[in-house]
């Protein structure tokens, strides 16, 4: 599948949970440096939406029975497996960024990070 596939329960457990992501009980655990600042999955989805990702509706029968969270599929026109050059087009959708293309202006963004080069 093209896009971003997210295992909701694994994502929440390892990247959104405060404290140690490897089974710590939270007492005295240091925050995971790789974790997102958000602590709710809905906040992460909102950030995806602000960067131009949209959820792809799941097909009937595609989830396992009893799977409450399951896999979620998100898609962006600028996120393709064999097109890393398109990543530079992913920008946060602010009011100003939405108005610039309509006015014939280029949407500016930060320089690529060392991970994008």
Descriptive notes:
With 117 residues, the chain is of the alpha+beta class. The chain has a domain at 4-76. Helix content is 23%, strand content 10%. The chain has a three-stranded antiparallel β-sheet. 1% of the residues are buried. Residues 20-26 have low confidence and may be disordered. This is HSF5 protein.
Write out key terms for the chains shown.
nucleus, 117 residues
Q: How would the global form be characterised?
A: globular
Q: Biggest sheet, open or closed, and with what strands and sense?
A: 3 strands, antiparallel
Beta-strand portion reads 5-15%
Sheet with most strands: strand arrangement: 1-3-2
- The number of helical elements comes to 3
Number of strands: 3
Low-confidence spans? 20-26
Whole-number radius of gyration? 17 Å
| Helix percentage | 10-25%
Structural class: alpha+beta
One letter per element, helices H and strands E, the order comes to EHHEEH
First-to-last CA distance = 25 Å
Overall mean pLDDT: 73
Region (Disordered): 16-36, 98-117
Domain HSF-type DNA-binding: 33-92
Family: Belongs to the HSF family.
Subcellular location: Nucleus
Brief summary of the model shown:
This protein is 23% helix and 10% strand.
What secondary-structure arrangement, pairings included, does this model have?
Layout: E1 4-7, H1 8-16, H2 41-50, E2 54-56, E3 71-75, H3 95-102
Antiparallel strand pairs: 1-3, 2-3
